[in-house]
Amino acid sequence: MKPSLLSHLQTKEAEKMTSLPSDFLGRVFFILQRYGMSYLRGAGTTLLISLISTLFGCIIGFGVGVVQYLPIEERLPWWKRWLLVLAKGLLKIYVEVFRGTPMMVQSMFIYYGASQLMGINMSMWFAAFFIVSINTGAYMAETVRGGLLSIDNGQTEGALAVGMSPIRAMNYVLIPQALRNIMPQIGNNLIINIKDTCVLSVIGTVELFFASKSVAGTYYTYFESMAIAMVLYLTMTIVASKLLRLWEKKMDGPSSYDLATTDTLAFTSGLLTMAPAKKKERRD
Amino acid sequence: MEPILQITHLKKDFGSHQVLSDIDFSVNQGDVVSIIGASGSGKSTLLRCINLLESPTSGDIRFHGESVLDSSIDVPAYRAKVGMVFQSFNLFDNMNVLENCMISPVKILKVPKAEARDRAMMYLDKVGMTSFINAKPRYLSGGQKQRVAIARALAIQPEVLLFDEPTSALDPQMVGEVLDVIGDLAKEGRTMVIVTHEMTFARDVSNRIIFMDEGVICEEGAPEKIFNQPVKDATKAFLQRFWNR
User: Fold this and answer.
1) Is B78 helix (H, G, I), strand (E, B) or coil?
2) Residue B152, number of CB atoms within 10 A of its CB
3) For residue B125, what is the nearest residue in chain A, using CA coordinates?
4) Residue in chain B nearest A176 by alpha carbon
5) Helix count (H) and strand count (E) of chain B?
6) B chain contacts of residue A164, beta-carbon cutoff 8 Å
7) Nearest-angstrom CA–CA distance, B158 and A166
8) Pairing relation of β-strands B66-67 and B17-27?
9) Rounded Cα gap, residues B207 and B223, in angstroms
10) Residue A40 located in a structural domain
11) Upper half-sphere CA count for residue B85 (Cβ side, 13 Å)
């Protein structure tokens, strides 16, 4: 029985190789015909993981960056100061560890470590989102801190002077401006994530690279399979960066403004009326 | 009558450098107090201490008789009663003119939105900036920015207005439009403390002048007295230098 099975497999293999076209484009089309769906599914997984993880990474980054930005003021009660120092220290360790080690190593360390040490069987999906998010967060933390530092101190003082607490000043004035300032960096991170999710293949996430490698392994068509992967990666990154540019433009608002007319100037609450017309028209 | 603001033995050190030493003065309802003096004499620091943007090293600041340095005081609520206009305007860059004037009334003072809008429009009208409500600060000239900043400070309806060299960052052409606005406010009887280098303006608009020199109040009194018959040599020298400029 055994020899016949082996020979059966061998003929199968031979058939497979003979059906493969000999020219580059022919092979590409051949692969796309049979494995197009698995490529698309891989690309979809890559996109999903990078988008969601960039989003969560930004949230983590803002949290950590804001804490790192807060000054340790002398007028705070001692326990608040102590808590802040502790939080800053721990977050600093987090940033250093995740920025300072390769994501591929982290993936295996966390995925296998969790089941071996703590008996937690992480789902592969959860592990993928977790690892990429926490990595992005570590990078974003420093970016956010830089974004906050780049805002003129006058903005904070202006906010405090109209009665905002430091937290509200952060919410209404500093964070919106920091977000705008670091948009290019967020775009950078998204693009890096689209590419770097490929390291998740080591824990078995079937993203674009994993899918391409499987196809390549089946037909030994590494060049053609990876060419398809290259095109797909490039398409995703270019589209992502273009969309982010558009978003940036939208955040900036209109590049001009309309002078308000009397219609829009009408008082609406009925509590106040317009002061009598100015005797002296003030114009710059 | 009890003064709105009373400053006693106020001291401020930056490290080993003493910027303010033993400042005493008070501001009554309806007072327009101008603080003059050379750059580095501590005028701005004094104003920033009043608003707690700098924390005084020692001494006391009383607002309606209550110490604002007490740890139980609600600092943001106090600041909302003491409006401030800065040399560098400090309008919120992420908001347009109207939003700048509405954010604090709506979010902090919980004024209903329609009322806050009307209030903002009323003050913007006072400074002649109503047609610019949709503009972001980056599209405005310095004088326009400062007028909006004044409207923003008025919109929180403070009891005292502090002006920290409001015209020092403006070119001569724009100084006039801002001083006109402040002059109008003085005529309305608003309580104001103005740090300025505009001597003519200070003389015309204030009922009291404080001359500061090297961190102390050197001379204080009515404008006619300070500008026409100064007693101290430092005041004389300062004004001499100023008029001869």
Assistant:
1) helix
2) 32
3) A275
4) B94
5) 9, 10
6) 76, 104, 107-108
7) 19
8) unpaired
9) 6
10) yes
11) 32
Query: How many pairs of residues across A and B have Cβ atoms under 8 Å apart?
Result: 127
Taking the C-alpha atoms of residue A282 and residue B124, their distance in angstroms, rounded to an integer, is 12
Mean pLDDT, rounded, for B201-219: 93
Tokens representing B128 are 């002649």
CATH of the domain at A181: 1.10.3720.10
Query: What is the rounded distance in angstroms from the CA atom of residue B37 to the CA atom of residue B195?
Result: 9
User: Is A211 inside any structural domain?
Assistant: yes
Would you state the pLDDT for residue A232?
Answer: 94
| Whether complex ipTM tops 0.90 | yes
User: Cβ of B86 and A158 within 8 Å?
Assistant: yes
Which pLDDT band, with edges at 50, 70 and 90, does A284 fall under? very low
User: How big is chain A by its Cα radius of gyration, in Å?
Assistant: 28
Q: Is residue B210 scored above 50 in pLDDT?
A: yes
Contact B35, B210 (CB under 8 A): yes
Residue A119 inside a domain? The answer is yes
What pLDDT is stored for residue A283 in this prediction? Answer: 43
Q: Which residues of B, range 39-68, sit inside 8 Å of A by Cβ?
A: 51, 53, 55
Lowest mean pLDDT among A11-15, B103-107, B225-229: A11-15
Smallest CA-to-CA distance from A195 within A29, A43, A30, A8 is with A43
Spacing of C-alpha B200 from chain mean position: 17
In a domain, A262, yes or no: no
DSSP 8-state symbol, B138: G
**Residue B159 DSSP code:** S
Please give the structure tokens belonging to residue B209. Answer: 């002048």
- Distance, in Å, from the CA atom of B79 to the CA atom of B28, rounded to the nearest integer, reads 18
B134 neighbourhood in chain A, CB within 8 Å = 257-258, 260
Task: Find the mean pLDDT for residues A138-162.
Answer: 94
Task: Give the residue numbers spanning the domain of A77.
Answer: 22-254
The vertex-A277 CA angle with A272 and A280, nearest 5°, equals: 135
DSSP-derived 3-state class of residue A282: coil
Q: Please give the full DSSP string across A70-135, using - where no structure is assigned.
A: S---TTS-HHHHHHHHHHHHHHHHHHHHHHSS-HHHHHHHHHHHHHHHS-----HHHHHHHHHHHH
Amino acid at B145: K
Residue A96 neighbours by CB distance under 10 Å: 11
Q: How many domains does chain A have?
A: 1
- Classify B210 as helix, strand or coil: strand
| A246 and chain B in contact, CB less than 8 A | no
Strand order in the sheet with B191-195: B82-85, B160-164, B191-195, B32-37, B208-213, B216-221
